[in-house]
Each structure stands twice: as C-alpha cells, then as structure tokens.
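1st attempt posting a full record on here, be nice pls
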Amino acid sequence: MSRTEDAIRASGSRALIGYLPVGFPDLATSIEAAVAIAEAGCTAIELGVPYSDPGMDGPVIQAATQSTLERGFRLEELFEAVAAITARTSAPVLVMTYWNPVLRYGVDRFAERLAAAGGAGLITPDLTPENGRDWLEAAERHDLDRVFLAAPSSSDARIDAAVAGSRGFVYTVSTMGTTGARNDVDLAARALADRIAARAASVGTEALRCVGLGISTAEQVRDVLTYADGAIVGSALVRALGAGGVPAVRELAASLAAGTLDDGPAAAGTQAADAAPAAGAPAPSTPAPSTGSTHSTEKGASA
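the predicted structure (as tokens):
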C-alpha cells in the first residue's frame, strides 16, 4: 500500500506537498524545517538531494543546493535526515533526486537504505518508466512509492507509461522550463491534469495528480486543487527558509495550507469525462531523457 497515496486520499484529495533541499542551510536546520512544514499543514514532504548540475532547478533552489554541496554534503546525510524526520512526523517523506546519484550508490542499496530510514519513495525527474526497470523492481522489493513526471508536451504514450509506472501520484508539471515561483500557474497544468485522468480512466484505473512548478501562494494552491489532487510548492519555501529560517518557512507553509481548506475536492471522475476529447488530441512527443547525469528536456526538477 502506498503511504503517499493514503495521505493524499486522507486529505480529501486536497494535498499540499512541500519541497526542501536536504542539508540546507545545514543538516540540523533542514530536518527542523521539514518537520515544521509538516506540522504547519503539509500532507507530504519532498526532500531534494543536492545535485552538482542543477541547471533546471531555478535560481533559488540552485543557490541552496550549490551552497549545500560546497559545505561537503554527503549522501549519507539524506538517510540520516529521512530517519530523523519520519521519527517526528507521520507525513510521508519522498526523496526527489536525479538518477545519477542513485545509480552511483547502487539502485537496490539506495532503495534498501531509504526504506530502512522510513522514506516513502522517490520522485525521479530525469528517469522515465521505460528506462526505469531496475528502480521499479527495487521499489517493489522494498515497498517504495515511485513518482514519474508528465509534462504539457508529453505524448499519450508517455502519459500512459507514467500512469502505469507511478505509485503515489503522477507529478504533473505545470509548465516547461526551470522551476521557481511565478505569478500565474501555467494554464497548461489544468489540461494536462485532465489528460492524465482521462488516460487513466481509459484503462480502468485512476491516477492521483499533484501539480508542481510555479506555485507560491494560497490562492494558487486553491486554484490547483479545483482540478488536481495536490499542489507542490518548492522555491517559495526554500526562499523563506534562506531568508528567515525555520520560523519563516513554518509561517509560509501554514499560509499555503490555508489554500487546501476551501471548496471541494477535485472530482476525478468528472475531470476524466470532461477531458476525454482533449485526451485524444495529438501532443508532441518528448524525447526520453538519459538515465545518467543529463537532465530531461521534459522536466528536470522539483516544485
């Protein structure tokens, strides 16, 4: 059973997922910040692994992860942080990582360590289900969620693969390009969420859809939750942590969580039915990304 899916459903499909980089500005503070956003109302935590080439992560997350690497971040800190966070909150902790660090560490070894630390699973932005056999098998062995991405440019075949391969939710990318808070969440997110629901319904299943990229206010969270099951916030939280520490990130998370309290949950069945014509429309195919250190052109970062 997926802990992430259970948490999203328990929220009434009105989930708030908060992203923070592990180890920023230091390990102890990153643990406190993650616990704080869960206590403030985040349904789940997305813990980012600092990466040496974060070109698609946007300037706020780039600066945070680069400073973390410069102080000597080690991957062992990730497992230490996950264990410390999950000991203090029941919110599922998903790790967002590019694939190369997992590959270098050893896929099954990484999965085993993550499960032992209490982690819920992985979000893998530059790994597609078609290239993810080793991870899918390891995730199955260690009962971990696997979250794949779909972007506005994704073909129906790519969306089908993301729906079939994901457990927890499908990461619904609201816009192309780098991450970072924007004044308006891309309208393409709504069409994409509808396409995912319709493609899942066409094979007799259901896919929870959480929208990430560009969400920074309670109003945007509220808007996203009219058509999706969750909203993912990253850069705004990282900026708050960098500027004001744990108190600031807790305050922002509480403000964002207010956006989950209004209106009703997204009606997945209605969304799927309404989206049926769009689901059949042609979409440009996105090239499969490398499973090494090269980033996906479809989407390469969290929140």
